[in-house]
Design a protein that fits this description.
The protein is mainly α. The protein contains 8 helices and no strands. It has one domain. The protein is about 80% helix and about 0% strand. The longest helix has about 35 residues.
Protein backbone atom coordinates (compact mmCIF):
# COMPACT_ATOMS: atom_id res chain seq x y z
CA UNK A 1 0.00 0.00 0.00
CA UNK A 2 3.04 2.33 0.30
CA UNK A 3 2.84 2.85 -3.48
CA UNK A 4 -0.56 4.51 -3.11
CA UNK A 5 -0.34 8.13 -1.86
CA UNK A 6 -2.47 9.24 1.07
CA UNK A 7 -4.20 11.77 -1.19
CA UNK A 8 -5.45 8.93 -3.41
CA UNK A 9 -6.80 7.04 -0.40
CA UNK A 10 -8.52 10.19 0.89
CA UNK A 11 -9.99 10.81 -2.56
CA UNK A 12 -11.36 7.28 -2.77
CA UNK A 13 -12.87 7.50 0.72
CA UNK A 14 -14.47 10.82 -0.20
CA UNK A 15 -15.85 9.32 -3.41
CA UNK A 16 -17.44 6.34 -1.66
CA UNK A 17 -18.76 8.42 1.25
CA UNK A 18 -20.36 11.01 -1.02
CA UNK A 19 -21.95 8.40 -3.30
CA UNK A 20 -23.31 6.30 -0.42
CA UNK A 21 -24.42 9.39 1.47
CA UNK A 22 -26.29 10.87 -1.47
CA UNK A 23 -27.95 7.52 -2.24
CA UNK A 24 -29.08 7.26 1.39
CA UNK A 25 -30.39 10.84 1.28
CA UNK A 26 -32.22 10.31 -2.04
CA UNK A 27 -33.87 7.07 -0.83
CA UNK A 28 -34.80 8.50 2.57
CA UNK A 29 -36.44 11.63 1.19
CA UNK A 30 -37.80 10.16 -2.05
CA UNK A 31 -41.40 10.30 -0.85
CA UNK A 32 -41.32 13.99 0.01
CA UNK A 33 -43.47 16.08 -2.37
CA UNK A 34 -40.48 18.15 -3.49
CA UNK A 35 -38.60 15.16 -4.92
CA UNK A 36 -38.74 14.15 -8.57
CA UNK A 37 -39.40 10.51 -7.66
CA UNK A 38 -42.47 11.40 -5.59
CA UNK A 39 -43.88 13.57 -8.36
CA UNK A 40 -43.36 10.87 -10.98
CA UNK A 41 -44.89 8.25 -8.69
CA UNK A 42 -48.08 10.31 -8.58
CA UNK A 43 -48.09 10.36 -12.38
CA UNK A 44 -47.60 6.59 -12.45
CA UNK A 45 -50.58 6.07 -10.15
CA UNK A 46 -52.69 8.24 -12.42
CA UNK A 47 -51.44 6.31 -15.45
CA UNK A 48 -52.35 2.96 -13.90
CA UNK A 49 -55.78 4.19 -12.87
CA UNK A 50 -56.46 5.21 -16.45
CA UNK A 51 -55.01 1.94 -17.73
CA UNK A 52 -57.56 -0.03 -15.68
CA UNK A 53 -60.57 1.64 -17.34
CA UNK A 54 -59.25 1.37 -20.90
CA UNK A 55 -60.63 -1.36 -23.12
CA UNK A 56 -57.51 -1.42 -25.29
CA UNK A 57 -54.22 -1.35 -23.38
CA UNK A 58 -51.89 -1.39 -26.37
CA UNK A 59 -50.81 2.16 -25.56
CA UNK A 60 -49.76 1.13 -22.04
CA UNK A 61 -47.78 -1.81 -23.40
CA UNK A 62 -46.04 0.50 -25.88
CA UNK A 63 -45.09 2.91 -23.08
CA UNK A 64 -43.55 0.03 -21.13
CA UNK A 65 -41.77 -1.16 -24.27
CA UNK A 66 -40.15 2.26 -24.62
CA UNK A 67 -39.03 2.14 -20.99
CA UNK A 68 -37.62 -1.35 -21.50
CA UNK A 69 -35.69 -0.24 -24.57
CA UNK A 70 -33.98 2.51 -22.59
CA UNK A 71 -32.99 0.14 -19.80
CA UNK A 72 -31.84 -2.52 -22.27
CA UNK A 73 -29.67 0.02 -24.10
CA UNK A 74 -27.85 1.04 -20.92
CA UNK A 75 -27.45 -2.57 -19.74
CA UNK A 76 -25.88 -3.49 -23.09
CA UNK A 77 -23.69 -0.39 -23.13
CA UNK A 78 -22.50 -1.20 -19.61
CA UNK A 79 -21.36 -4.66 -20.70
CA UNK A 80 -19.43 -3.10 -23.59
CA UNK A 81 -17.78 -0.62 -21.22
CA UNK A 82 -16.84 -3.48 -18.88
CA UNK A 83 -15.33 -5.41 -21.77
CA UNK A 84 -13.27 -2.35 -22.69
CA UNK A 85 -12.07 -1.81 -19.13
CA UNK A 86 -11.06 -5.46 -18.77
CA UNK A 87 -9.16 -5.21 -22.06
CA UNK A 88 -7.30 -2.14 -20.80
CA UNK A 89 -6.56 -3.93 -17.53
CA UNK A 90 -4.99 -6.73 -19.54
CA UNK A 91 -2.68 -4.31 -21.37
CA UNK A 92 -1.75 -2.14 -18.42
CA UNK A 93 1.82 -1.23 -19.43
CA UNK A 94 0.83 0.13 -22.81
CA UNK A 95 -2.13 2.02 -21.38
CA UNK A 96 0.04 3.65 -18.70
CA UNK A 97 2.46 4.86 -21.36
CA UNK A 98 -0.38 6.45 -23.31
CA UNK A 99 -1.78 8.18 -20.21
CA UNK A 100 1.65 9.40 -19.11
CA UNK A 101 2.02 11.11 -22.49
CA UNK A 102 -0.96 13.34 -21.68
CA UNK A 103 0.19 16.69 -20.26
CA UNK A 104 -2.56 16.94 -17.64
CA UNK A 105 -2.38 13.37 -16.31
CA UNK A 106 -0.83 12.64 -12.91
CA UNK A 107 2.19 10.37 -12.54
CA UNK A 108 0.80 6.90 -11.96
CA UNK A 109 2.41 3.71 -10.70
CA UNK A 110 1.27 0.27 -11.80
CA UNK A 111 -0.58 -0.31 -8.53
CA UNK A 112 -2.33 3.07 -8.71
CA UNK A 113 -3.36 2.44 -12.30
CA UNK A 114 -4.81 -0.98 -11.52
CA UNK A 115 -6.65 0.39 -8.48
CA UNK A 116 -8.26 3.14 -10.56
CA UNK A 117 -9.30 0.68 -13.24
CA UNK A 118 -10.70 -1.72 -10.64
CA UNK A 119 -12.76 1.11 -9.14
CA UNK A 120 -14.20 1.87 -12.57
CA UNK A 121 -14.91 -1.82 -13.13
CA UNK A 122 -16.75 -2.06 -9.79
CA UNK A 123 -18.80 1.02 -10.69
CA UNK A 124 -19.95 -0.47 -13.99
CA UNK A 125 -20.61 -3.90 -12.47
CA UNK A 126 -22.85 -2.14 -9.94
CA UNK A 127 -24.54 -0.24 -12.79
CA UNK A 128 -25.16 -3.46 -14.72
CA UNK A 129 -26.80 -5.12 -11.73
CA UNK A 130 -29.04 -2.09 -11.28
CA UNK A 131 -30.03 -1.96 -14.95
CA UNK A 132 -30.69 -5.70 -15.14
CA UNK A 133 -32.85 -5.61 -12.01
CA UNK A 134 -34.75 -2.59 -13.37
CA UNK A 135 -35.30 -4.55 -16.57
CA UNK A 136 -36.80 -7.46 -14.66
CA UNK A 137 -39.08 -5.18 -12.66
CA UNK A 138 -40.38 -3.46 -15.79
CA UNK A 139 -41.12 -6.96 -17.13
CA UNK A 140 -43.08 -7.61 -13.96
CA UNK A 141 -45.03 -4.42 -14.69
CA UNK A 142 -45.90 -5.81 -18.12
CA UNK A 143 -47.23 -8.97 -16.49
CA UNK A 144 -49.27 -6.96 -14.01
CA UNK A 145 -50.80 -4.89 -16.79
CA UNK A 146 -51.71 -8.11 -18.59
CA UNK A 147 -53.34 -9.42 -15.40
CA UNK A 148 -55.06 -6.14 -14.53
CA UNK A 149 -58.81 -6.30 -13.91
CA UNK A 150 -61.16 -4.14 -15.92
CA UNK A 151 -62.60 -1.23 -13.99
CA UNK A 152 -61.45 1.07 -11.23
CA UNK A 153 -59.27 -0.64 -8.63
CA UNK A 154 -57.17 1.79 -6.59
CA UNK A 155 -55.28 -0.94 -4.73
CA UNK A 156 -54.18 -2.63 -7.95
CA UNK A 157 -53.24 0.71 -9.53
CA UNK A 158 -51.06 1.51 -6.51
CA UNK A 159 -49.43 -1.93 -6.75
CA UNK A 160 -48.44 -1.52 -10.41
CA UNK A 161 -47.34 2.09 -9.85
CA UNK A 162 -45.16 0.99 -6.93
CA UNK A 163 -43.53 -1.70 -9.05
CA UNK A 164 -42.88 0.81 -11.82
CA UNK A 165 -41.42 3.30 -9.36
CA UNK A 166 -39.11 0.65 -7.89
CA UNK A 167 -37.91 -0.23 -11.39
CA UNK A 168 -37.34 3.45 -12.12
CA UNK A 169 -35.41 3.82 -8.85
CA UNK A 170 -32.97 1.07 -9.83
CA UNK A 171 -32.66 2.49 -13.33
CA UNK A 172 -31.86 5.92 -11.88
CA UNK A 173 -29.27 4.39 -9.57
CA UNK A 174 -27.64 2.79 -12.60
CA UNK A 175 -27.58 6.17 -14.34
CA UNK A 176 -26.16 7.70 -11.17
CA UNK A 177 -23.28 5.21 -11.43
CA UNK A 178 -22.53 6.61 -14.88
CA UNK A 179 -22.34 10.12 -13.43
CA UNK A 180 -19.95 8.96 -10.72
CA UNK A 181 -17.86 7.08 -13.26
CA UNK A 182 -17.24 10.43 -14.95
CA UNK A 183 -16.05 11.77 -11.61
CA UNK A 184 -13.78 8.72 -11.27
CA UNK A 185 -12.11 9.67 -14.55
CA UNK A 186 -10.88 12.77 -12.76
CA UNK A 187 -8.76 10.47 -10.62
CA UNK A 188 -6.48 9.88 -13.59
CA UNK A 189 -5.75 13.60 -13.57
CA UNK A 190 -5.21 13.81 -9.83
CA UNK A 191 -6.84 13.01 -6.47
CA UNK A 192 -7.96 16.60 -5.86
CA UNK A 193 -9.59 16.76 -9.27
CA UNK A 194 -11.22 13.44 -8.37
CA UNK A 195 -12.69 14.89 -5.17
CA UNK A 196 -13.80 18.09 -6.87
CA UNK A 197 -15.48 16.15 -9.69
CA UNK A 198 -17.25 13.91 -7.17
CA UNK A 199 -18.60 16.96 -5.35
CA UNK A 200 -19.69 18.55 -8.62
CA UNK A 201 -21.55 15.38 -9.64
CA UNK A 202 -23.51 15.37 -6.38
CA UNK A 203 -24.42 19.02 -6.82
CA UNK A 204 -25.64 18.37 -10.37
CA UNK A 205 -27.68 15.34 -9.24
CA UNK A 206 -29.23 17.25 -6.35
CA UNK A 207 -30.21 20.21 -8.52
CA UNK A 208 -31.75 17.96 -11.16
CA UNK A 209 -33.71 15.85 -8.70
CA UNK A 210 -34.82 18.54 -6.24
CA UNK A 211 -34.39 22.01 -7.77
CA UNK A 212 -34.75 21.64 -11.54
CA UNK A 213 -37.17 23.52 -13.77
CA UNK A 214 -38.47 20.14 -14.97
CA UNK A 215 -39.47 19.26 -11.40
CA UNK A 216 -41.12 22.65 -10.97
CA UNK A 217 -43.18 22.10 -14.14
CA UNK A 218 -44.19 18.57 -13.16
CA UNK A 219 -45.23 19.58 -9.65
CA UNK A 220 -47.48 22.40 -10.82
CA UNK A 221 -48.98 20.62 -13.81
CA UNK A 222 -49.43 17.13 -12.41
CA UNK A 223 -51.85 15.26 -10.14
CA UNK A 224 -52.32 16.33 -6.56
CA UNK A 225 -50.24 14.39 -4.03
Amino acid sequence: MHEIPVSDIVGLIWFVAVWVGYTWYADRYARRPQSLRAVMHAYREQWMQQMLVRDNRVMDVNILRNLLQGVTFFATATLLVLAGLLTILGSTDRAIEIVRALPFAAKTSLLQWELKLLVLIVIFVYAFFKFSWALRQFNYCSTLIGAAPKGQDDAFARLVAEMSTNASKDFNQGLRAYYFSLAALGWFVGPWVFMAATTLVVVVLYVREYRSSALHTLRHAGPKQ
